[in-house]
Each structure stands twice: as C-alpha cells, then as structure tokens.
Amino acid sequence: MGGDARIAVRGEFQRQGLGRFIILYGFHKLKEQGIMLAETMITVKRKLSIVLHFQCGFKLQKDASEWKYKDYSFFINRIIANHRVEKMLDEYENKKVL
Questions:
Q1: Which residue(s) pair with 38 in the sheet?
Q2: Rounded to an integer, what distance in angstroms lies between the CA atom of residue 83 and that of residue 53?
Q3: Prediction pTM value
Q4: Contact in structure between 51 and 92 (CB atoms under 8 Å)
Q5: Which residue has the higher pLDDT, 20 or 51?
C-alpha cells in the first residue's frame, strides 16, 4: 500500500495542471516500485482537490472492510465524509458546480 504526502499548489499557480501532474507522477513512481494499491486522504472542504483526484482515476472506498484505519472515531468520521463526498460529486456531475 502506498500513499501520497500532504501537498498543495499555491493559489496563483492553480488551474495550470500542476496538481494533476503531482498526483499522477507520485502514484506513477509508486507503481514503478510495484505498489499497486494507493490511498490518499483529502479534507472534505477541499472540493476542487477531490474532483481532481477523481478525474485522475481515484475511487471512493465505500467498503469499510478495506479501510486501513479501524479506529472507531476515524470510522465514524469516514462514513460521514464519504456521504458528503458522494453528495458533492453528484452535485458536480449533475450541475457542474462547486
């Protein structure tokens, strides 16, 4: 299992493809090392980042048995976050708004 570091693109450099490049490059390097499953965590309020990750091929992990963190409080927070992300993505796909 691989993952990415906490990264951000400064506001004045956003919407230039840098975030997409960083995401894809990082996970490409993991794949080169034989890592075929990767996970990332994004704060729900970072809507543009979530959409970008989905555009890069990420999928929402809905199956709790696959979650790597089993802590109860994290479990509850993840269920709530998944619900919010699903709702946000539905709004984005249906109305193209964020």
A1: 2
A2: 17
A3: 0.65
A4: yes
A5: 20
